[in-house]
Every structure is written in C-alpha cells, then in structure tokens.
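Notebook entry, structure prediction.
Reason for the run: the old model in the group folder had no record of what sequence produced it. Starting over properly, with the input documented here first.
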Amino acid sequence: MGLMSFLFGDRPRRGGPEPLLPLDGYAPVSQDTMAAINELSRVVKNNPDAVEIYLALGNLYRSHGEIERAVQIRNNLIVRPGLDNRFKGRAWYELGRDYKRGGFLDRAHHAFEEARGLLGDEEPILVELAALAAVAGDFETAARHYERLGHRVAQAHFMVRRAQQAYAEGEESAARRWLSRGLKVYPGSVEGWLTRLELARCAGDWNKVGAELRLALANVPPDLRFVLLEELIRQTRETSPLDGQPRASGAGWEAGDVLSLPEAKLAAGGEADMCRAVIPVLEEQPPDLLLEYYGAWIYLLCGDVEKAKGWFERTLVVNPDFWPARLELLALAAREQPLSSVFEVQLGFFIGQARHVKRFVCRTCGLRREQVFFSCPRCRSWHSIGFRLELSD
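New structure, fully documented this time:
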C-alpha cells in the first residue's frame, strides 16, 4: 500500500460570516419529497419571477435524483434576460453541483468557473473546484484553491498528496520540496509527518523513524498524535520493510487471534525494529492515554506480553473506563486461565466482535469509522477524527 494508502477527503469547515452559497450537502428534503416538489412547482408557475423558489425547486429535484429536471431549471434561469449577476452566478453554481451529482465532472468544472467569474472567489465555489481537482489528481491546483481560502490544513494536505504523487513518479527531489512546503504551511500536518515516517520506514532506517516520530509528536496537535502510531503500526504489519511489498498471509498479530498470541517473529518483519525505535520516544512523553495504549500494542506485536500488560494497565490509571485496554487485558488474562472449550469459544467470539467496534469518530458530526480519515466523509470537517475512549462516544 505504501505512501498512497492514506484516506483523504476534500472539504473543510471554517468559521466566519454566513456564506453567500451553501457549503455542504443538498437542500433539506422533507419526508414527502415529491409533495414538496409538486407544491413548489405550482408556486413557480403562479410566480415565474420568484428566483429563490426556482433555485430551491432545482435543489429538490437534485436531492430526489432528477438531475435532468434540475439542470433544465438552472439553464432556464441562466438564459433569462436581465437576471441579476448574483442570481445568475448562483444558478451556475447549482448547475455545477447538479452536474457533479450526475457524474459529469467536466461540465461541473465549467459551471463552477462561470459562477466564479460572476461571484468571485466565494468559499463554496473554490471548495468545489478543489474537490474536482483532487478527483482528477491535480493536487497542486487543489492546494492553490485552499491557499486562496487561507485554509492551511487543507492546503498542506494537498501539498503532501502532491509530494506522494511525485515520489510515485520517481521525482524524489520535487517530492521532498512539496513535502517540505506542506509542513512549512502547516507544521502540524499529520499527513506530512506520516509520509516522512513512511519514507524512513520503507528505507529500513529505524533510527530515523524514531527521530521523525519525536519531531512529529512535538508538532502534531495532541488530539491527533494517535493517528501517527495507528498508521505506523498498520503499515509495518501490512508491508515488509525496504521493498514496501505486502506481507504473506498470517504474518503478525491478527484480530482473529483472540486468545492466543503469535510467536515473536524478529526476523520476519519490522515489529522488533519498530519496538526498539518507537518505545524510547513514547517513554519520553508525559503520561498520555493513547500513546501508552499504542505502546502496549507495539510490545504485544513483538511478543513481549508482560510489558504489554503493564502499558495497558497504565492507560487505566489515566482513564479507568478506557474499554480497548480492558478488552485486551481480558484477552491476555483468558489465555492464562483453564477454560472449558465451550467457554473459550464463546469468550473468543465476543472479544473478536468487540475488536470490530468502530474505534474512530468525527468530533464534529459523530460519524464512526473503522479506518483513519483526514476529512470527515459526512460533514467534510478537516482533522476532526477522534478515538472512541468510551463506548458511549
């Protein structure tokens, strides 16, 4: 999976005054969408100059999947003689969203550019153009759009994507420049630090991995530092060091190994190297629940069960309700108990199911996910990921 294995989003949330254009989603839809559409259609027929109603009607058609009718409404507004440029620009913007919803990305891009020509660099327009550029793999343009918005997190994100793209194309010097620029724009870019960690890991330079992790922990916001360890552990388990190729099936700890631990395979993978590089860095940090939790997992992956237990127990001193640590301590304790075969099977089943609980949550909208994300797939907030410390989160 290598450098391109991260999950990326495309849309920010920002404070400030109410925007001219809507920032997210489609117009709210009533429970009886068709009744609302029919009612609005009747009103429009009786009042053809009601531009706002016309725009709302088009949004309802789009939300109901009737893209062709939504497009027709926008085009009727755009060609209307004497229509104020403000409304014409909004019609172009909504037309772009219609085309985007229908999958006509070239037409969507043209419509958004027309809206931009009439309304200027409005945030929703630039966000849509950035999203289309990202889909097309034009990360440099996406970064420029977010630079115009002053959105450093998103700008740095796409600079890092451009760096990863350059690495994949063998342009190492350009890649390093883009990566350096991204971290200069936003030093707390977790994506940028993950890329630097991945480069050091793939080169087999675990001393540099430790040094990069130390810098990353000093720069990344505290509520996002767990992402560094989550991804470092995942990538180390999924690929061999040096060549970045997927490992053979069965290497390392798997979620299915509920009541048994793998033997330490020091020569087979990078877990032992990771332990030697990462644990000293974590020990330098002040007490931190998630850093200690991931430190326990690193020990577990290396086969050092006793130290893993100790680090899991340290998390409970910080937060006695921290369920992931209690789950792993239960699994480890069960291995040491004489269990009947029936009880072991049932306990293993429940522990295995608990391990599949979605661990990550968007701190803005509450969306729960199994994988790391940098922009929430639902509300498009940037860097809003959190770890579910309690099952009620």
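Summary: The chain has a mean pLDDT of 82.
The old model has been moved to the deprecated folder.
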